[in-house]
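Backbone geometry:

***
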Amino acid sequence: MNYKEADSQLQGRNAQSRKLLRNTYLKRRGENIAVMLHKTDIATYTPSGSVTLNSGGYRTPTTADRLREIGFRIYTTKGVWFLYGYGDEPVKFKDGLTISKNGKITGAGMVDEKRDKAIKERVKAYAQLCADSLPLEMPSIGDCFYCRFQFGTGSDHLDSHMEEGYVVPSMIFRLLETKGSPASLWGAFDKEKGGFVLDHAKDTVKRTVRRYILKAYGYQA
């Protein structure tokens, strides 16, 4: 898809918005046209012929599939997104990456396999720490402000938690609540629970925390 093709689909009563795929819409954004998945503009086309890609922090198989379905060759290697088809080498995906009309790319990520491996090992160790710390005290006003109020969409404050070995009850509670796992919540915060319930909670917390933090770093998890 390009700007001209997108514009041709936004005509008549659908001049401002049109359903494209499941949970996916074409939307006019002033002079630009965006492909919106849920609430994220994953591709924004301009009249000049450029397009900007953005996952909105949701590096999920669904987001990658939508980008492929509108013409972008996104592939994953060890949880890292790469864009193919622009030059001899794949380009590491980064939110805000822009492709000009002539195929020039700006804003791409930097490939650093050593750093990627170190981050993943650090996240894995922290997720294990969270699981091993169960059961926890219930969340309180002394917890991390960002985790309490769900402002923690980036990785900066999570870096400090991992460095300090700080297991945040608010973060664990929110992740389990969002996951819709009552048994895991009981096991994670009820000190009288044990056995299978506690083991189940530990396994769920380890997997959920790992995925959450990797996602904050921009990896598909």
Observations:
- The chain has eight helices and ten strands.
- The two ends are 28 Å apart (CA to CA).
- The helical segments are 3-9, 61-69, 113-132, 145-148, 156-164, 169-179, 182-189, 195-217.
